[in-house]
Amino acid sequence: DDNCCKGRLLLLVLELYLKDKLKDTGFLLSIVSEMKSSNLPRTLLAAFERITAHVDNLDSDQSSKLLDSVGEELCPQLEWLCQRFIEELRPTVGQEMSESGEDNIEAAVATLH
Q1: Model confidence at 101, in pLDDT bands (50, 70, 90)?
Q2: Closest Cα partner for 6 from 42, 49, 50, 40?
Q3: Do residues 7 and 43 touch, judged by C-beta distance below 8 A?
Q4: What is the DSSP letter of 94?
Q5: Rounded CA gap, 5 and 3, in Å?
Q6: CA quadruple 44, 47, 51, 53: dihedral positive or negative?
Q7: How far lies 15's CA from each of 18, 22, 33, 36, 99, in Å?
Q8: What is the three-class DSSP state of 67?
Q9: In terms of Cα–Cα distance, which of 49, 43, 33, 45 is closest to 6?
Q10: DSSP letters along 1-31, please?
Q11: Distance (Å, rounded) from C-alpha 10 to C-alpha 16?
Q12: Cβ-Cβ contacts under 8 Å for 70 (sequence gap 6 or more)
């Protein structure tokens, strides 16, 4: 499947980017945006996991600098990702979910945004 291969390639490029000392945050954002526009939610989830692990390994000044430069731009992709997983959960949960359950999920997404 072409999307599967594209997702693996984008994830590999992201991993190589995260290992590089010189950081072009625009390139990071373009990788993540391509994952979203290619409709690759699982690849995007893996990307966020790798970005989080990378930020955890930085000292506080470096992590603050990186998050300040890309954090706000990553929020729409994260919100899209959460919406996709909610869409996948809805058929599974079906009629069992109450209105308050849906409100809780939407509140969680709003909090992430």
Answers
A1: low
A2: 40
A3: yes
A4: G
A5: 5
A6: positive
A7: 5, 14, 15, 17, 40
A8: helix
A9: 43
A10: -HHHHHHHHHHHHHHHHHH-SS--HHHHHHH
A11: 10
A12: 25, 28, 29
Name the token pair of 26: 């625009």
Residues 7-61 have pLDDT tens digits of 999 999 999 999 876 578 889 899 999 999 999 999 999 999 999 898 888 888 8
pTM: 0.71
CB 44 within 8 A of CB 81: yes
Q: At what angle do helices 41-57 and 25-37 cross, to 10 degrees?
A: 160
Q: State the Cα–Cα distance between residues 37 and 97, nearest whole angstrom.
A: 30
Q: Tell me which residue of 66, 69, 40 sits closest to 55, measured CA to CA.
A: 66
Q: Quick check: helix, strand or coil at residue 37?
A: helix
74 CB-contact burial (10 Å; exposed 0-12 / middle 13-18 / buried 19+): middle
The residue to which tokens 């990307």 are assigned: 47
Among residues 76, 77, 56, the alpha carbon closest in space to that of 67 is found at 56
User: Residue 12's closest CA among 30, 29, 31?
Assistant: 31
